[in-house]
């Protein structure tokens, strides 16, 4: 194993200052410390020269990016090519290990594994630590990307649902206004002849739906559905009362007509007497 520097003190607490830098947990083994940074946007050398790694014995670098050329071979047609590179920084073969990690993870970007040498040779174990740190930093970036993608998907879904609810609520308000007018009309018709009907219509309140959160819109949708159901029920009740009232009036009319006919028959009995026998009144006449 080649060493670049003599034994260095333990690394200071690392707090990544650069944006889009994802850091692994530290690995401690026989006084040596390993930690990795990964970035999909920062230039490889800039990531390697991060001031958090200034005191490290080795800053092993590997990077991978898309090539402008494509392969014309393969069953699937042209395939994307990648350009890779590395810097051992005194840790022989370390950079190539990082290139393989980037290829296996199918990511583009740069990864740097810093090692603070503690004075004890670790042998091949050091490569295991280097790979573990690199993979962990890359996985944290993948998790962040997946979370960001999922958040974007949820926001788009919420926006789609929000737009749909805005249209639904405006339609519901129009329906409520129409049903209120219809109810007032039917109430007025039912109470005709009993004085001026009271105006039971309620002015429709204007709502600024555009400024409301999604959950509030969902609550209002349920409230509007309940209002429509209530108004439809009231209309049915008014129509039923009106129908019962008409039936009562028809029954009363029928009873009145029957009573008048009965009274007339009683007052004029001759209307019911049989007609006289014309033959008995003129016996000498031959028919």
Report what the structure shows.
The chain is of the alpha+beta class and 287 residues long. The protein is 49% helix and 15% strand. It contains five helices and six strands; from the N terminus they run E-E-E-H-E-E-H-E-H-H-H. Helix 2 runs parallel beside helix 3 (125-190) and helix 3 runs parallel beside helix 4. The termini are far apart. Mean pLDDT is 80; it is low at 1-7, 12-18 and 193-201.
List keywords for this structure.
disordered N terminus, 287 residues, rod-shaped, six-stranded antiparallel sheet
Largest sheet: 6 strands, antiparallel
Could you say which structural class the secondary elements and strand pairing correspond to? alpha+beta
- How many E strands? 6
Strand portion: 15-25%
Query: Low-confidence parts lasting 5 or more residues at pLDDT below 50?
Result: 1-7, 12-18, 193-201
Radius of gyration: 47 Å
Mean pLDDT: 80
Number of DSSP helical runs? 5
The helix/strand order is EEEHEEHEHHH
Globular, elongated, flat, extended or rod-shaped: what is the shape? Answer: rod-shaped
The end-to-end span amounts to: 156 Å
Helix content: 40-55%
């Amino acid at each position: 194993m080649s060493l670049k520097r003599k034994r260095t003190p333990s690394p200071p607490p690392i707090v990544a200052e650069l944006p889009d830098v994802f850091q692994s947990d530290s690995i401690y083994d026989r006084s040596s410390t390993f930690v990795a940074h990964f970035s999909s946007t920062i230039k490889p050398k800039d990531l390697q020269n991060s001031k958090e790694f200034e005191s490290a014995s080795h800053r092993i670098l590997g990077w991978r990016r898309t090539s402008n050329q494509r392969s014309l071979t393969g069953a699937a047609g042209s395939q994307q090519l990648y350009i890779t590179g590395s810097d051992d920084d005194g840790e022989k073969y370390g950079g190539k290990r990082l290139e393989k990690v980037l290829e296996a993870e199918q990511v583009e970007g740069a990864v740097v594994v810093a090692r603070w040498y503690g004075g004890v040779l670790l042998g091949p174990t050091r490569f295991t630590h280097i790979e573990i740190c690199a993979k962990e930093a890359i996985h944290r970036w993948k998790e962040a990307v997946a979370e960001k993608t999922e958040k974007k998907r949820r926001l788009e879904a919420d926006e789609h649902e929000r737009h749909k609810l805005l249209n639904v609520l405006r339609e519901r308000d129009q329906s409520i206004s129409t049903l209120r007018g219809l109810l007032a009309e039917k109430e007025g018709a039912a109470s005709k002849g009993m004085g001026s009907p009271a105006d039971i219509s309620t002015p429709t309140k204007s709502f600024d739906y555009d400024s409301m959160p999604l959950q509030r819109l969902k609550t209002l949708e349920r409230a509007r559905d309940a209002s429509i159901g209530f108004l439809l029920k009231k209309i049915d009740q008014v129509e039923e009362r009106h129908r019962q009232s008409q039936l009562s009036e028809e029954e009363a009319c029928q009873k009145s007509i029957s009573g008048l006919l009965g009274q007339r028959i009683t007052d004029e009995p001759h209307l019911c007497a049989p007609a006289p026998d014309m033959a008995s009144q003129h016996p000498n006449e031959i028919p």
